[in-house]
Amino acid sequence: MAGASLTTYNDAKKTPILLAAENEYFDIVGYFLEQDHRETVFDDLELAAALHILTEKDTSKEKSKWGIELLKYSLVKRIQFNVPKIVAEPVGLYSNQRECQTVDELNQIQADDNRLHVEALLIQERVLLSGDENLSLSWLFDRAMIFVNKSQFEQCLDLILYIFHLSQHGESQPSPEQYFWLFYNMFKSGEPIPEQRFWEVCDLIFQSMTLNFDPSHKRDQLHLLGLATKIEHSEILSNLREINLDYSDVANIYCHGSRTQGTCTPTSDRDLIIVTYSKQEPLTFWKDFDYFHEFQLHKLHNKYDVCVYSVENFEKLLEKNYLLCIQCLFLPKQFIVKEKIDFRSVYLDKYYNPKRIKLVALYEMYVPIGMMCQPKRSSDSEVLSIAADKSQAKRDFIFKNLFHVIRFLDLAEQLIETRSIHDLTRVSHLLVTMKEVRGDPTDECALDRVLDFVRVKSTEIQSRLNALVPREPLVGLFKVHITFEYQSNFQEMRTKLKSKLNYPNYQFAILRILDEKDFPHLTATRFYHGEYPSMIPSLEKEIREELADFNIESITITSSISNDGVPNSDMEMKLLWDEQVCCFQLCYKVFSCNQRVKSSIKSIISKRKWSQSLQTCLSSYKMTRVDEDKFEYILKVSLSDFDRKTVLEIHNEVMNSSKQGIIASSNIEPEFVVYRRQI
């Protein structure tokens, strides 16, 4: 034992005397105390005993016996070495109890678990308050949070006042955030709170810590969330130096993210957007849609996520109706640290566009869902792919973005309906539901369950968006393709149709798909001038009445590519049209449908492939018109993931090439498939 230092800690932060006590070698403990019987040595022993009692509360009494015996031993040795305790005056928080100073007093309470628990708390507070490293009173805040979790709010408020009293009359320096999370978790618990006392204590705590405290504030969640931002103002401003910005160079500072949405936790990042007068390079937008863009994110102190935009770039994002920035324009004032430029007026006067708002909200939905369903994306967004990344961090990232699918759709609905965002927390409660739906985050099916939930909720909001901003109708000439069910009297029907006396609006033909063993299909086509989709009910009724003698199998409608309302971009088609139905379509009469012809057309298409995989489908069939005996070979090309301009370029190149084996007179204008229905 020679040379052992009682103040030396091992890797487990335990001293030699504490190790001896834990192993009940009290003779060794006594030897150590003979060598060093300072107050701090006794404090270490008694704190260990107190923490043991607090930890083992509500467990077997056998486990608590060691702590009691150690306290008794310490009291005996204090008397032996004349080291009396210096105990605090009784306070109501501890039922006016006083820490035991003799073994007899300890014997009287050792059978009372509740009183023994109070004794341990008194020892803990006495010892920890005497240590310089314990000025944050963290153990008391931990105890207060236990009260919150048990919905014992009166006891929690008592303890908050006691902590505040200690901080006012001593050297303790708890952070405002420690108080905030107690109040916030009480408020968010869903359990009834003592409202009058809750706000009185809250105001007492924060009015001395917050600049421009408003005593007439609304008593709501928004006020609490705003307090969290206000108490961080000085820290936020100090972040400017970290990114080489001077306060005078900054126009606006917005606090956004989970704090404003009411979904924050103690580990949540603080999200800031800073708009500066300094110059920046113009923004570079993703290729598939001019919305998401490259930017630098400053991560400061493992706490703040800071994005800096120049005034010009921020306004460019307002022009694009970038929802993350637009929501900042409608933040309550307590979340705006600085505002020298009224960007809300700029946006509403120059860039507010309900059609664009709807489109970008759908794109905000498309990307996160695509992270699960379409892992192969364009090169500038490959980082989002989860094809080869199954880590939990990536799963959590996707989960978070699936929540934002619902949130941005809701923000878009508010903007379109009211030209404002009046409630940033309107769908925040769904995050709790999504966590319940997910269950175990490590379950491989967890995200699939969440995705199903998000699809249902997003469909509900989409239907309301469609009512607020209907898709632009297609107006012009349409071609209706009708396929009939195969019947045994096929030849009889063909003979009857040759007269065409009863069906002057239709052109009938027999189609047989090449390379497939299938019955021939009887089809009819007709042209129709109108407006899609409003024309559908009357058109279908007309078809059923005019072709009552036949069993209709399906109806497909194609629009002339030149009609008003045909989507100009492939992303517009993905977001506003049903991808399972809609595509561009090219049809050509060819001398023969051999592989050479198909390969030649594919090569023309492949030249226009972008970085993502473009979908094409070539099919060929033999068509015989009912009123003629000759037949023709038809080659049909279906194109997805192309815009209208590129489709026209492909068509022109195909028609101008002499190598395709295409009959020159078959220059049929490209079409856009808008409707397909099985009857």
UniProtKB/TrEMBL annotation:
Q: What InterPro entries is this protein classified in?
A: NT_sf (IPR043519), Polymerase_NTP_transf_dom (IPR002934)
Q: Where are its TM segments located? A: none
In terms of superkingdom, the source organism counts as Eukaryota
Q: Which Pfam families match?
A: NTP_transf_2
GO MF, one term, reads: nucleotidyltransferase activity
Residues in Polymerase nucleotidyl transferase domain copies: 238-307
Q: What is this protein called?
A: Polymerase nucleotidyl transferase domain-containing protein
> Lineage from the top down?
Eukaryota, Metazoa, Spiralia, Gnathifera, Rotifera
